[in-house]
Amino acid sequence: MRSRPHDDAMAELYRNDPAFALEVVNGILEDGDQAELLIMLRQMAQAFGGVQAVAEQAHLNPTQLYRTLSPKGNPALNSLLAILKAMGLRLAVQPLTAPAAPAHAT
Length: 106
Known about the structure:
Order of helices and strands: HHHHHH
Structural class: mainly alpha
Number of helices: 6
Oligomer: single chain
Helix content: 55-70%
Shape: globular
Distance between the termini: 73 Å
Number of strands: 0
Largest sheet: none
Radius of gyration: 17 Å
């Protein structure tokens, strides 16, 4: 059996199970590991049409996208939003804990 690069295997897994990909990305967001998030987004880009296709849809050049999604990348919010949109995803904000019940005036 021939081995293949880890990124290729993960891209295939995410392509075949998009719900799992969302679970993984949300778990990474909870942990707050930016380098891990960027690696995962690069793998997802491979899964959902390839880096070239995602770059075109995000209106970025492929070299810029590779650099942005490198472990040391630091994407601007507008780039991150464009990359996510190109993959059919969006950024959402959730409270860390359940909000406290509002205090009633007496």
